[in-house]
Amino acid sequence: METGKTSGPSATLQTLPGDDVRQILWRYADRCDLAMLVQAARAAARGPVARLVAEGGRNTHEWTRQKAQLLRVFDESGITAAFLEPEHGGFIEGPKNLALALIAFELSWVDAGAATCSLAGNLALAPIHERGTPEQRACYMSRCAPAKPGEERQPWRGAFALTEPLPYVGVETGMLGGKVRVAEWEEGKEPILQVDKRGRFITNMGFANFVTAAVDSADPRIKGSCMVIVEDTDPGVYDRGVPTRKLVHQLSSTRDPVLSLRVPASRIIGGYSVKDGVIIPRYSHGEIIEAVFRRTRVTVGLMTAAKLLSAVEPVIRYARSRFRGGESGGPGSPRYDLGLQQKEDVVHRLTDVWAMGEASASLGFAAARLFDQLDPLERRKDQILAERKIEGGRAQFKALAKVQAEALELVGLAAKPEGQRDAQRNQALKDDPLTQFALLDSVASVLCPACKLWNTGQGANTMREAVSLMGGYGVTEDCPGFLGHKWMDAQLEATYEGPEAVQRRQLSVTMTNELFLAQFQQWIAELRQVAAHHPGTGAGTLATAMQLWFWTLNHLRRATDADGAKLYHGNRQGVTFPLADALCWLLAARCLLLDVLELQAKGPANPALAEALPGLLDFYTDLCHVQCARAAGEVGRICAELVFGYNRQPAWTPEASGAGSGKGDSDGLEGLIPGMGSAASAGAEAAEGGKALPAKAGPWVQFGGLEPFVRLRVKLDGCLTGARLAKDRAAEALTKVMIPEALDYPV
Ligand SMILES: Cc1cc2nc3c(=O)[nH]c(=O)nc-3n(C[C@H](O)[C@H](O)[C@H](O)COP(=O)(O)OP(=O)(O)OC[C@H]3O[C@@H](n4cnc5c(N)ncnc54)[C@H](O)[C@@H]3O)c2cc1C
Predict the structure, then answer these.
(1) Which end of the chain is more exposed for a tag (fewer CB within 10 A), N or C?
(2) Could you tell me if the CB of 171 is within 6 A of ligand 1?
(3) In this structure, which long-range contacts are made by residues 241-245, counting pairs with CB atoms below 8 Å and at least 24 apart in sequence?
(4) Are 516 and 444 within 8 A, CB to CB?
(5) Rounded to an integer, what distance in angstroms lies between the CA atom of residue 434 and that of residue 480?
(6) What is the pTM of this model?
(7) What is the rounded distance in angstroms from the CA atom of residue 291 to the CA atom of residue 270?
(8) Distance (Å, rounded) from C-alpha 509 to C-alpha 497?
(9) pLDDT for 518-535, tens place per residue?
């Protein structure tokens, strides 16, 4: 039971959360460079970008002069260079995932097409950044750096071409139609390659100077596939193709290019070796895109998060002012002051939009920060393996399996009380970069697809709710905050860089990694502690929902359906995909909870927040509770369908349980829990830190092997105690919070 705040009045949420709050929640309060970058990106978004949208810049899919001017704005504001290393013209030292995530968030607050236009340049460079040779990196990164003061030079722009016309590459990235052949290979000289690639829906193609393209070998003298760089001045055809007649992200350029060019073999990304007269690219196209997408997809997830949070202020303003100027009531009357906010549903739905927005931002930024931690560890891991001369897929696989075992050992040690574990071994494992890498990598491999999948897919659904709160205004070009555009744009974010099916497929593999699952169990234990110390956050509910998900996964991995077929199987997307979806709800709610705890811990140290902090904390606690309850509801529903849905026989017999035996309207569940009928007793117990429910009683036995599931499910429902009270409080806060007179864009 999570009723921690029912007694006594709550502090009031005074204003919408500003940068002081965001910096703490998303952990960049100590990064001046990022704070400045946020300001610069915001000025670009709420100034030139917003004006272009307001002037109707989105009404054409052509690449116009006005749209092209945004590239200059991005160059001047530091957005373009943020991706680059300082030695190539950038200004951020070290990993840049969080920095790029913040830029994407700020630009998408106004228009995600503008964000995509900037990010697609990074995507073009990403294969070179992740797997390019030092020469390739130096060459293309420096060319893409904006000119320094006094320099006469146009920065290069790039495009990333993987997707091809039907029937080739889309979701299935292996079916490459693009080909590479040897065009010339003179003795002792570098081979010249003929590259033929047709692209479909390629961003930045209206102006890109170079393209990083995925191609397959069509020549016995080249092994496998690779990614190759082609330039607009290479000999041959560099046809930008027809513009895509898209309905979304119109501030970016998208075309179907036709490329047929001759390039030196040194353009193969990552380089190549020659063995027995065959060119062997160092990396296949699959290896490169995996390294690229696992980072860039996080930023896409944040685009949709920004949309949801950007909707809060316009929706509040619209609702409050809805009836002003009418005949009945003037200032001071509820109809005038609150307008549509007098209606419970309006504020409840906006609470949901806000909670979803916060949770998706929390998940996205957590993933971005994780990759900032992981990047140096990944390089260190590669270095160590090279030093130990562990090369080739099989040898590396073997070495990493040992590391995985050690990482699992470390999780086991961490779970033990301090006095009971081997402190020396614990420390040695903790200090080992390979162990650290394995731990973080197993989580990153889940968080990235989860954030791309959940933020964009659920975000698109939630954007519809936000639009509906604006009534007819929501689906007009004039809608404040461009909410109608954002709703449609969210669907593209759910599609490009791999649609939802791709993310679900990836999650169905990575979420069964034992190392991830060991940490997941550790998180459940931690949440139990949090529930004990921070009642009202929804931590206990979340812990129980996570337990239910974990039980369901283990059950489905062993179980078969009514016909004896395996349930948890790659081809059985009806099982694996919903379970992946359920996990995302849990991860997002957990990230929000951790952020709220951070605000609680660090907020008091910021004097600028002093007065507002109690109201902020009460509000965020309620919002977190709302989101945990929602996640629990989704997880309970999905898991129950999967656990029971593949059986033909009911899990219990009505006769045995007393139903239909003349004992009245029994549903067969009486006596499940002593005192059933008072759900609070289950909830109260759940809130105490997850003690098991009472031992077998009444018809529990009827559920056979599914009994633990039924117990957990009942417990989970009981955990929802107080969740609606939290929503009532959060909704009330929305009726009182102060908002500025007018939206700060377009200006
Ligand atoms: C505006 C825009 C910009 C883009 N920019 C770029 C770019 O810069 N570079 C680039 O390379 N690409 C780009 N794309 C392409 C984009 O990445 C692809 O559209 C996307 O990956 C999906 O491929 P597809 O459209 O061929 O869908 P398909 O492969 O035809 O899939 C359609 C649907 O079928 C289902 N499906 C397909 N396969 C499976 C499966 N195995 N399991 C379950 N379900 C499945 C899914 O529901 C999926 O959404 C862009 C697209 C757009 C619209």
Answers:
(1) C
(2) yes
(3) 241/199, 241/202, 241/205, 243/61, 243/62, 243/63, 243/206, 244/61, 244/201, 245/61
(4) no
(5) 50
(6) 0.94
(7) 12
(8) 19
(9) 999 999 999 999 999 998
pLDDT tens for each residue of 456-495 = 999 999 999 999 999 999 999 999 999 999 999 999 999 9
Model pLDDT, residue 705? 84
pLDDT score, position 699: 52
Q: Which DSSP category does 54 fall into?
A: H
Q: Can you give the pLDDT at residue 274?
A: 97
Ligand 1 centroid – CA 201 distance (Å): 9
Q: What pLDDT, in 10s, does the model give residues 606-628? A: 999 989 999 999 999 999 999 99
**Do residues 556 and 568 lie in contact, with contact meaning Cβ atoms separated by under 8 Å?**
yes
Phi/psi-derived region of residue 497, left when phi > 0, alpha when psi is between -120 and 50, beta in every other case: left
Token pair for 281: 């690219």
Give CA–CA dist 725/325, Å, rounded.
Answer: 34
DSSP-assigned letters across all residues of 399-424: HHHHHHHHHHHHHHHHHS-GGGS-HH
Atom 23 (ligand 1) nearest CA: 170
Which pLDDT band, with edges at 50, 70 and 90, does 684 fall under?
Answer: very low
Which amino acid type is present at position 6? T
Tokens of residue 705, six digits:
């092997």
- Residue 677: is its pLDDT beyond 50? no
Q: Which of 45-59, 181-195, 651-665 has the lowest mean pLDDT?
A: 651-665
498 lines ligand 1 (CB under 6 A): yes
Tell whether ligand 1 has an atom less than 6 A from the beta carbon of residue 203.
yes
Secondary element (H or E) of residue 210: strand 210-217
Which structure tokens are listed for 503? 């993310």
Residue 86's φ and ψ, nearest 5 degrees, are -55, -35
Average pLDDT over residues 132-154: 95
Q: With helix as H, strand as E and coil as C, how does 302-337 read? A: HHHHHHHHHHHHHHHHHHHHCCCCCCCCCCCCHHHH
Task: Evaluate if residue 143 carries a pLDDT over 80.
Answer: yes
Strand pairing category for 202-203 and 254-264:
antiparallel
Rounded to whole angstroms, what are the CA distances from 639 to 18, 569, 575, 644, 648? 38, 16, 10, 8, 17
Residue with tokens 């290479």: 234
| Cis peptide bond prior to 746, omega within 30° of 0 | yes
Structure-token pair, residue 367? 């993933």
pLDDT tens sequence across 32-83: 999 999 999 999 999 999 999 999 999 999 999 999 999 999 999 999 999 9
Provide the residue type at 708 as one letter. P
Retrieve residue 34's tokens: 């990022």
Task: Please tell me the predicted confidence (pLDDT) of residue 123.
Answer: 97
Q: Check pocket membership of 160 for ligand 1, CB cut-off 6 A.
A: yes
Q: List residues bridging with 217 in a β-sheet.
A: 180
Q: Which residue reads 């669907």 in tokens?
A: 491
Contact, 135 vs 264, CB < 8 A?
Answer: no
Which band of pLDDT confidence, cut at 50, 70 and 90, is reported for residue 11?
confident
246 lines ligand 1 (CB under 6 A): yes
The closest alpha carbon to 538, from 593, 483, 460, belongs to 593
Six token digits for residue 92: 């951020």
